[in-house]
Amino acid sequence: MGSCLTVGPNEALVVSGGCCGSDDKTYAVGGWAWAWCLISDTQRISLEIMTLQPRCEDVETAEGVAITVTGVAQVKVMTEQDLLAVACEQFLGKSVMDIKAVVLQTLEGHLRSILGTLTVEQIYQDRDQFAKLVREVAAPDVGRMGIEILSFTIKDVYDKLDYLSSLGKTQTAAVQRDADIGVAEAERDAGIREAECKKEMMDVKFLADTKMADSKRELELQKASFNQEVNTKKAEAQLAYELQAAKEQQKIRLEEIEIQVVQRKKEITIEEREIQRTDKELIATVKRPAEAEAYKMQQLAEGQKMKRVLIAQAEAEKIRKIGEAEATSIEAVGKAEAEKMRMKAEAYQQYGDAAKTALVLEALPKIAAKVAAPLARTNEIVILSGEGSRVTGEVNRLLAELPVSVNALTGVDLTKIPLLQKMTSPKA
């Protein structure tokens, strides 16, 4: 039985031992490895960068000047299979501090040996070359331990006798002297050069002003020409734009007219359909009910007509029956009256003048009633006359005129009747 072990990219896993007494070793970086229980041994070694600060104090240079040098080195364990195996042989089981201590001592030894071969000026003035030399000398030794020097730089160089400070002051004085001489010469040359430059500047300025005037004149001419051309092009463009706009407007208007025509056609179609729908609706809601109502009224009228006809026929039949009955009655009455008249006529004929006289006498009261009818509504009659005999004369005159009136009305002459002759005579 065993287990699968994993390791990150900043570590290396070493599995040693195996089945059947095998002494093979397995190195895994950022991966996994299989380890057998009880017979396999697993160890890890860090692959992270280690920062070292080698320091050499009071080391004499080639000139015998004691200086102190401090550097900064970046190292790490190499991951190539063979070099990793070497590093594991050297440092497996040790802590990172132990590895740093071994490498630091190696770097400080090489740094000390190199300082003894160089002068202070070489170390101080060319630090990069000094650091490169240290890397080149120390790299093979640390490489044989499976360690790689990634970088090495000189951090600080100083001494306790102020040698570097004095060297700096001398150098600074020399530099200052050279600087002052240089400044004086520069100012002299600058004055001469300035005068020459002013003369050249004036010449150049004159030429420049002349050329500027010419250029300005040409520029104005070119601008006038360009403006004319631009204005012409603008005018042409404006005319072309207006023409094109007019054409586009005309197209738009034509399209609007076509759209209006199409819309009008659609409206006409819709109106026709609406008319058809309205006609159908009127037929359904008005005409059909009206026809039904007309048919109903016609039937009712025919029924009423038939009723009136039947009623009229019944009335006619009734009237006819009544007329026949009345005619029969009238005929009977007429026959009776005729018989009565015939009998009266026979009686009148038999009696002659006496009958006529009787008829007149029978009619006189009726005549007198008709004549006296207006007088019946009279409360009082006053006859204005101065004499009493005059009233009597008036009455006699009225009685004398009565036979004439009766003769005019009936054709009977009352004067021929003896009784009436006596009544109407003056003496009577």
UniProtKB/TrEMBL annotation:
Subcellular compartments: Membrane; Endosome
Alphabetized Pfam families for the sequence: Band_7, Flot
Record's keyword terms, sorted: Coiled coil, Endosome, Membrane
Coiled coil: 216-274
GO biological process, alphabetically ordered: protein localization to plasma membrane; regulation of myoblast differentiation
Record domain Band: where: 87-269
KW Membrane (keyword) present: yes
Family the entry assigns: Belongs to the band 7/mec-2 family. Flotillin subfamily.
Binding partners and assembly: Heterooligomeric complex.
Name of the protein described by the UniProt record: Flotillin
Organism listed in the record: Xyrichtys novacula
